[in-house]
Amino acid sequence: PGRQSGSLRAPNPGKQTLLWLVEVVKPFSLLLFLFLVFHFSQRFTTVVPESCVLIILGLVLGGIVLIANKKQLYQLDPGLFFLFLLPTIVGDAGYFMPARFCLYGAKMAGVIDDNVEAGLMEFLLFGALISAVDPVAVLAVFEEVHVNEMLFIIVFGESLLNDAVTVVLYKVYISFVEVGPGNVLTADYFKGVASFLIVSIGGTLVGLIFAVILAFITRFTKKVRIIEPLFVFLLVYLAYLTAELFSLSAILSMTFCGIGCNKYVEANISQKSRTTVKYTMKTLASIAETIIFIFLGISAVDKSKWAWDTGLVSCTLIFIFVFRAMGVVGQTWILNKFRLIPLEKIDQVVMSYGGLRGAVAFALVVLLDGEQVKAKDYFVATTIVVVFFTVMFQGLTIKPLVKWLKVPRSTNRKPTINEEIHERAFDHILAAVEDIAGLSGYHHWRDKWEQFDKNYLSKLLMRKSVYCKSELWEAYQKINIRDAISVIDQGGNILTSARLSLPSMASRTSFPEVTNVTNYLRENGSGVCLDLQVIDTNPGAKVEEETETHHFLAGNLYKPRRRYQSPYSRHFMTLGDQERQDREVFQRNMRNRLESFKSTHYKRHKKDRSQKKARSHHRLSHLRLLLTPRVKPTKSQLKGELSEPEKDEDVGITFVARKAAETPKERPKSVPAALEVCQSPSVAPPSPTCGEKNLPWKEGIGALPPCVSVEATKIIPIDLQQAWNQSISSLESLASPPVPQEPQHPRVSALHRLSVPPRPPVPPPPSRAKFQFPAWKDEEEEGTLSQQHREMQPLMPSLRPPPPPPPPSSAQSSGKRRNPCVYLRSLVTTPPSGSMPHSRGPTQL
Amino acid sequence: MGSRASSLLREEDIEEIKKETGFSHSQITRLYSRFHSLDKGENGALSREDFQRIPELAINPLGDRIINAFFPEGEDQVNFRGFMRTLAHFRPVEDNEKNKDPTAEPLNSRNNKLLFAFRLYDLDRDDKISRDELLQVLRMMVGVNISDEQLGSIADRTIQEADTNGDMSISFSEFIKVLEKVDVEQKMSIRFLH
């Protein structure tokens, strides 16, 4: 039935021109529409759901076409729909679906789908397709109103899977209908159920197989970056076609292919390919959905396509509402039996009310075969009405409804600045304490899976060098230029200020404005300029200024970590902000840890300085060697962008130990671990001590490919994982716990016991993961120390660089440029003013 | 894991912790197994690195401050008792214990919750949040694209708003006062799993 009929017709010439005109207008209007939607949607869709806009546009377009031609030109073609439109939508959903959601989704999706049940086969069919819920609009609402995190996940999962499940059901029913209601025996119902299971499970399997293949292929595309995205698209699409070939659920196959391969493919392909894949997928899906919605609008105008039946329409409307509510209540009742945190009444209301029917339902109903389903026209009409009603009416009212339900407790009073700040702080505190208490869910099976994934799958499917790839790292570092500068700038303050343990973030006020990078960043910064001094002199503007401050704060305070803040949307990629924030916070934290580590030891150094000056110096130079920031060979690429002389290192994170003391027996036990992380080629293979073998992070590093700790992969953005590992391992190896106040702390004494090597020429003592820096920990114990000191003595002079310390060994080889190592070293080694001026280095700008 | 972890925890310890913190028995064992899994050194106490190893904290703007809050002044180890004592601040206030024992203030009282937050700001423990201390926390909580002048003026404004006695800092009583309209009991509570 659905046939692209425009080209077949050749009426009189005048009409022909008009037709042609319409053909020309079509892309333009599409363009216009896309522009409208994507330009204004950010603001607009907060009031009107996106799909509303689309449908209205479709109506307008359909009206124009109808006036022009009296007959509908564009219709959905099953081939077009199933081969192109659906795959793109589903593929997009699958690829972007965070893996954790799929379990919940699977739980939910199966149930909502049988909402409307009528006796006849056709009605079953209709029921299947009309129950396809389109939750994109709901999700948008959920974000704004505070919603239970669980609820978000449930609806999210439902949204992603029920398109697929609906299509599967639809196909099953359609085969029933083809047989004819009279011929369907009881056994056939069971067969139907069985085939449903087979179709879905088979489809899922096919998808997963293709996911593995795809991941495996991308492992070897290093040389041919340009075709990486092509591989991704082709294989995902192939998964779809293959499943279709075997009459399995192509949708599920595609969804799971996307989910399955995402992690490995993302790790394997280059940054650019990744971006390409992301954007292409989004674009295609947007286009597909847009087209469907426009079809919807068009066919709503065309009377010949549908037949009205008030009874059917109203019954359907009532039934979908009632059944959805029943389904939701029933399921949540069951779920609540197993859940620690029950779903509340309000959640259920939102879920019931959020059953917006969308494009997929409409597409399916249009594709019904008019020969076999006699009531097709009625169904079409009903579907259109349902979609209109749910999208327009419910979509528009759901937000006020939720607000109305929620509001009774909160007042309209505007929060004061204090409240705003402190409440945000509370949020962060809560998030942190939740993480510490480990409440974000612990699942035995999930951990098992992650173990398996780490041990086998990742090794098989990920490129060996994937985490050592420097381009990711570079991109990351560019973001951090400014902070790197500020660290250097702060350096002096921190080391000379009295409160050493408080690396002052606020000390940037001293930061000269002339540096280009700063100015650049500042220009790019928020447009809100709060010149409070000016406003303060003008009491009239007080209120205005308050609002502005609020606005400002609300926009710029970090959001607390919440999973529902990275929602899936068909049209926008929302991850940017969260990711950026994570980066900023992450590197800030790492820097702080490092600084407090430094200052701690510096304090100790200061304390002991009077009597142990010489030794401290040795120790410092030792530290200096350990604390050399990693120098990237590729760094020169950044040169052009920086007029500042080479300050582009993010010192806070990239600290790794370098070849400090080459002789194994001299080296603190855990340094080799850090050495391996940075893969310095010149490092002599460290002799593995038992301590090393026991180090938790050691296994991953020894086996190199995925040197990402299991835990970190969940949280840290993929391109930060290397940084995370490095910092963790280097912090662990470098940072001993901050100053033990009482000398006889149990742990310290334990360390003493551990750290005393029997006699100099003896292999390093077995050490535990906790244990670092014997020479430092043991300051209280003269005996041990002097002994160790003596050990170190002969080596130190040769190891210590000349007073204005140039980068030793590999740093030197990487170029004659003055790099942050120098600065850093000066930070690390700067003694209190006056005591050792010579080691201050030539580093003042 | 539960059985092994709880076997290390003696009944009388649980009872004591229960009394002190108000957690239920199963909550305590559950949290103990968490404690145990964090304790990489297996010495019955957590160090700062143990906390720092939690990846989520690395992307929490106040992560390190909160880690510090777990450690008593000058200590660098925290045992299970101390761990639980800190966590107890975040136990939700239940209806039946609101007026149970007015003499001993439970750890999860409104005041204690607020005090916990206050201590995150008040680094030098002089019971005042100075402008400098506030600025540090603000800097942690905002994006990099806010200039220092802007931040400074926000800090000034914040202090002005809260400061009643004109010493240009926020004392604890002023802190309570300025947040008196906030539902602290709800905002500073976590639903611990039973």
Considering residues with a beta carbon less than 8 A from a beta carbon on another chain, report the largest interface and each chain's count.
Answer: A-B, 89 and 78 residues
Instruction: Tell me the name of the CATH class of the domain at 78-405 in chain A.
Output: Mainly Alpha
Q: Helical stretch count of chain B?
A: 12
Instruction: Spell out the CATH superfamily of the largest domain in chain B.
Output: EF-hand
**What would the principal axes of the Cα set say about the shape of chain B?**
globular
CATH architecture group name of the domain at 78-405 in chain A = Up-down Bundle
Instruction: Note the beta-strand portion of chain B.
Output: under 5%
Q: What's the level 1 CATH class of the largest domain in chain B?
A: Mainly Alpha
Helix content of chain B: 40-55%
**What structural category arises from helix and sheet content of chain A?**
mainly alpha
Question: Would you identify the regions of chain A where 5 or more consecutive residues have pLDDT less than 50?
Answer: 1-11, 96-121, 407-412, 466-543, 562-575, 609-715, 734-845
End-to-end Cα distance of chain B, whole Å, is 16 Å
Strands of chain A, total number: 0
